[in-house]
Write a structure and sequence with these properties.
8 strands; 44% helix; globular
Length: 335
């Protein structure tokens, strides 16, 4: 009789484990409207329910650390490689040595130790006033420090991680001394104090308050969709071969399996699906981003902006050098 009860208990435990494996829990810093359609599609395909909690990056990281091995989270999903790098450094992610993910995501868009993988790409490029600037007047991020742009440059605040990541990768390419000179030049050329967001900076360019700014392309797409008459255009900088900083600065949104994931295999399968051609357009198109998987074409609205050569410094460097970038920006008076 005792053996029967033991066997029955084991069978019940196994059944409970199987039931739990039919769900995966995601902590996401991406907005619900961007991720829910993806998770619904995955559930339809796999039968696995995706439960998710959304919050800002700092709150989710703090929650994972506080929960420790009691966390219900299987996947952490967030934006900017700096945030992904910090999560890896804080020890809340586990390696995911997936051949499928290594094949789908280029090496410079994923963690060198396979702790996280980029799933969509955001390009941070130049936007200029077409009535006041000719494309041939533009060339590189570094050139915006030239005195010819004095009183003509607008920037988003240095407090936002996007510009911190750009400056961090400039440090990787140029070293700290040269990068500080570049950023000091930007500050000297500002037409107005830094703006709270990319959209406000573009609106200032469109109004003639300044002539050029640096933004993530999806902000450009959103603004022009609402106001197509604005005299704004994109320019892809740093395209000439042989530059120390060669290619447009890119960053990622991405995901990793949490260190104490209750369902690590299911978590891995979800991330693999998000990197697949089937899901990549769904993932990137929602926010006018670029697919991280190079086998997948961007949405028509995004493709219409033209092609560019991206910078291939590993985006993890944006995290590793972020603290130095923040201190450098502070020294230069970039607010």
């Amino acid at each position: 009789m005792r053996r029967w009860f033991t066997t029955a208990a084991l069978l019940l435990a196994a059944a409970a484990g199987l039931a739990q494996a039919n769900e995966v829990v995601v902590y996401s810093a991406r907005n619900e409207q961007l991720i829910k359609p993806l998770f619904d599609a995955y559930t339809r395909k796999s039968g696995v329910t995706v439960k998710f909690i959304t919050d800002n990056e700092g709150a989710l990281l703090a929650r994972l650390k506080a929960e420790g091995d009691k966390t219900p989270a299987d996947v952490l999903m967030t934006v900017d490689a700096g945030n992904l790098w910090l999560a890896a450094t804080e020890g809340v992610l586990r390696p995911t040595p997936s051949p499928a993910l290594r094949a789908a995501i280029p090496a410079h868009l994923r963690d060198p130790q396979d702790l996280w993988f980029g799933l969509s790409v955001r390009a941070r490029t130049l936007v200029y006033n077409t009535r006041r600037v000719k494309p041939q007047d533009l060339s590189t991020y570094e050139d915006l420090a030239d005195p010819k742009w004095k009183g003509r440059l607008c920037l988003r605040t240095s407090k936002k991680v996007y510009n911190q990541s750009l400056v961090a990768t400039l440090i990787k390419a140029h070293g700290e001394e040269r990068t500080e000179a570049i950023v000091r030049g930007w500050v000297a050329n500002l037409a107005a104090p830094p703006f709270a967001d990319d959209t406000k900076a573009m609106e200032a360019v469109a109004a003639g308050q300044c002539d050029v700014t640096i933004v993530n392309t999806y902000y450009f797409g959103r603004l022009l969709a609402k106001q197509p008459e604005l005299p704004l255009a994109l320019f892809w900088p740093n395209q000439a071969p042989g530059l120390a900083y060669e290619g447009v600065h890119v960053n990622v949104s991405g995901a990793g399996v949490t260190r104490h994931a209750p369902h690590p295999q299911e978590a891995q399968r979800l991330i693999e699906w998000l990197a697949s051609p089937e899901a990549q357009n769904l993932y990137a198109d929602q926010n006018l981003e670029y697919p991280a998987n190079p086998a997948v074409r961007p949405a028509p609205a995004v493709a219409a902006w033209g092609t560019f050569k991206p910078n291939t410094i590993n985006v993890a460097e944006a995290g590793r050098l972020q603290a130095r970038a923040v201190m450098l920006m502070d020294r230069t008076g970039y607010k």
